[in-house]
UniProtKB/TrEMBL annotation:
The keyword Oxidoreductase applies. It comes from the Bacteria. Belongs to the short-chain dehydrogenases/reductases (SDR) family. Keywords: Oxidoreductase. This is SDR family NAD(P)-dependent oxidoreductase. SMART domains: PKS_KR (SM00822). The keyword Oxidoreductase applies. Residues 7-186 form the Ketoreductase domain. It comes from Nannocystis bainbridge. InterPro entries: KR_dom, NAD(P)-bd_dom_sf, Sc_DH/Rdtase_CS, SDR_fam. It holds the Pfam family adh_short_C2.
Length: 248
């Protein structure tokens, strides 16, 4: 099993779904956690859960669309742990609507969170990661950004930007020993997919060769692998964890 004993790991968007599963997986692997989410109740509940299992975690209410939200999250982590080894940028929102029927506010919300929020995250995390001998960043994209999705062009475009950020940051940060990769999940059984499909997430399973939705824990395992020393020669890559969705 991949271990992160005494590693300091930051994860955003931990209130549910992939972010929640990822935080739990890192804690189970021995990491000490810096957690960010807009959902204060969920964040505080997760900290209590992890402490009850013998883990160590710090939660900071974080809005990635706020100009200094991510800086404050990283600063709090450094005050508590003095360094950062891994950052997982999971916070994101879904936006649906046709090109003709979509509205500009939805476009702005999607890019403020999924694109500018990621830009802010990297800017805040890089100096903290450079304090040590390097580290790893894992960004959460989507197969929608790698293939396109009718009725969700804004969301797909924002997630394609995650791939561009990941590749460019990997090249920029390689001399500093910081690896940057992304995970692109296929359909996952999460509250986001439930909202995305109007309460009918099961209909997405028909498009997956493996015939089912992913569990959040399956995506979390891919995140942990990319963040681990087992992936020490992997950078600038977007790993699709999609049940064969892109192979169709």
């Amino acid at each position: 099993m991949t271990t992160f004993t005494d590693k300091i790991v930051l994860v955003t968007g931990i209130s549910s779904g992939i972010g929640l599963a990822t935080a739990r997986a890192f804690a189970a692997a021995g990491a000490r956690l810096v957690l960010g989410s807009r959902d204060v109740a969920a964040g505080e509940a997760l900290v209590e859960e992890l402490r009850g299992r013998g883990g160590e975690a710090l939660f900071v209410a974080t809005d990635v669309t706020a100009p200094t939200g991510l800086e404050a999250l990283v600063a709090a982590g450094l005050r508590r742990f003095d360094r950062l080894d891994v950052a997982v940028n999971n916070a994101g929102i879904e936006v649906t609507g046709t090109l003709e029927g979509g509205d500009e506010d939805a476009f702005d919300r999607a890019f403020a969170t999924n694109v500018k929020g990621l830009w802010r995250a990297l800017r805040a995390q890089i100096p903290a990661l450079r304090r040590g001998t390097g580290g790893a960043i894992v960004n959460l994209g989507s197969v929608a950004g790698m293939r396109g999705m009718p009725g969700a062009s804004v969301y797909a475009t924002s997630k394609l930007a995650v791939e561009g950020f990941t590749r460019s940051a990997a090249l920029e940060l390689a001399p500093h020993g910081i690896r940057v990769n992304a995970v692109a999940p296929g359909p996952v059984a999460t509250p986001m997919l439930d909202r995305f499909t109007g309460g009918h997430p099961e209909m997405m399973a028909a498009h997956v060769p493996l015939g089912r939705l992913a569990r959040p824990e399956e995506i979390a395992r891919a995140v942990l692998w990319l963040a681990s020393d087992d992936a020490s020669y992997v950078t600038g890559t977007t790993l699709a964890v999609d049940g064969g969705f892109l192979a169709r």
